[in-house]
Every structure is written in structure tokens, then in C-alpha cells.
Amino acid sequence: MIAVTCRNGEHFSVDPDHIERIEHHGDTVLHLVDGTHYVVETPFDDVLRSITMDRAGALAARSRLRNGYAAAPTAARTARRHGVVTASAKD
């Protein structure tokens, strides 16, 4: 989700996957796939930067998952498999 501010001062979040296109003709206009559009105060470059950061965060989170589970460091996973208690497992 990205945070934007409408021209009327309303703050809200938009799912970047629902943005069809962004226009910039003095005002920044977000056009959503359902046909609604919002004129926002957030500058065009800031909207693009927010979308990039949102997608980068999603990719990073997915890269930490393996088969739907959080990936454990190889050494810790091997130690658990052999019944060795690691420092993090003691806590």
C-alpha cells in the first residue's frame, strides 16, 4: 500500500496493483482499474518512488520465504535437524 494525499487534504492508502495509470499534467491523477480516479497532492515522482519501494518490499519478503515458510539460516536449520540447541533456540 502507498500513502497519498488528495487535493481536499484527505490522506489515504492505495494498493499499487490497482493503479492502471498515473497522469501528470500539473496535477497528479491516479486512475484505478475500477474506473475511479483521484487528483492527489503527492508529486508524480514521489508516487512512483512509493510504488517502487512497495514492490521492492514485497519482493524482499517473498525472497525470505521458502515453500511458504520463513527461510532459516542454513547452519541453524542443520543444527536443529541434528538436535543441537543453538543460542537462538535457548531463548
Please summarize what this structure is.
This is Flagellar protein FlbD. Keywords: Cell projection, Cilium, Flagellum. This protein has 91 residues and is α+β, with helices and mostly antiparallel strands.
Can you put this structure into words, describing what you see?
This protein has helices at residues 44-63, 74-81, 87-90, and strands at residues 2-5, 11-14, 19-25, 27-32, 37-40, 65-66, 69-70. By secondary structure, the chain is α+β, with helices and mostly antiparallel strands. It is 35% helix and 32% strand. It has one domain (2-90). It has a three-stranded antiparallel β-sheet with strand order 3-4-5, with no helix packed on it. A two-stranded antiparallel ribbon has the order 1-2. The longest helix has 20 residues, at 44-63. The protein is built from three helices and seven strands.
